[in-house]
Design goal:
Strand order of the largest sheet: 6-7-8-9-12-13
Number of helices: 7
Shape: globular
CATH topology: Metallo-beta-lactamase, Chain A
Bound molecules: zinc ion
Distance between the termini: 37 Å
CATH architecture: 4-Layer Sandwich
Mean pLDDT: 96
Low-confidence stretches: none
């Protein structure tokens, strides 16, 4: 089964997740957005072995520590979908705009596509391409653990911003309703920011994507 620990990083309190297979101790960081030393300390304390870094999308606060950790631990960076390459390519400008310390570009070692699967020990994560907040945003789901890492697609009571280049609110709502809801209301999710929730609660209460909006 998949274990996880949420570690908020940067002044955007971005939810980086350390996830691991409880049988094998193989681990990954999802969205290591900053504060690499804090993340590496959490990894050391967990006793797990880092195998890979997973990125949901190319925004600075989700990828800022990816390169440092990849180099330090000798692990590959997987994701997001290739449509977010322009965001990774302009990280130096994003860092400047968002008040982060200067960083270099981040190179993905493997772009991810809808339906891809990622193994972590005995655990399997399914990739869902969920454009809208960014065109190459992906969501990672462990169907056995009933857990999803949704980045900035969906929040408890809200959805991601779409006022960025190539952002699209209609695409975002469509991604949530057609890709996430069919997974089941019992799926708990870790959003990119703020508290966890589950799909059933959001279908009932989220003002942007509740079922009553479409009936
Ligand atoms: Zn974002
Ligand atoms: Zn974010």
């Amino acid at each position: 089964m998949l274990g996880y620990q949420i570690i908020p990083v940067t002044h955007y309190q971005q939810n980086c997740s350390l996830i691991w297979c409880q049988e094998t101790g193989k681990a990954a960081f999802v969205d290591p957005g900053g504060e690499p030393e804090k993340l590496l300390l959490a990894l050391e304390q967990s006793g797990a072995t880092l195998e890979k870094i997973l990125l949901t999308h190319g925004h600075m606060d989700h990828v800022g520590a990816a390169r440092v950790i990849a180099e330090r631990c000798g692990v590959p960076i997987l994701g997001p979908h290739k449509a977010d390459q322009f965001w990774l390519d302009n990280l130096p400008q994003q860092a400047q705009m968002m008040g982060f310390e200067p960083v270099g570009e981040v190179q993905s070692d493997q772009w991810l596509n809808d339906g891809d699967t990622i193994s972590l020990g005995n655990c399997t994560l399914v990739v869902l391409h969920c454009p809208g907040h960014t065109p190459g945003h992906i969501v990672l789901v462990d169907k056995q653990a009933r857990l999803a890492f949704v980045g900035d697609v969906l929040f408890k009571g809200s959805v991601g911003r779409t006022d960025f280049p190539q952002g699209n609110h209609a695409h975002l709502v469509d991604s949530i309703v057609t890709k996430l809801w069919p997974l089941g209301g019992d799926i708990q999710f870790v959003p990119g920011h703020g508290p966890m929730s589950d799909f059933a609660q959001e279908r009932a209460n989220n003002p942007f994507v509740a079922d009553k909006n479409f009936g």
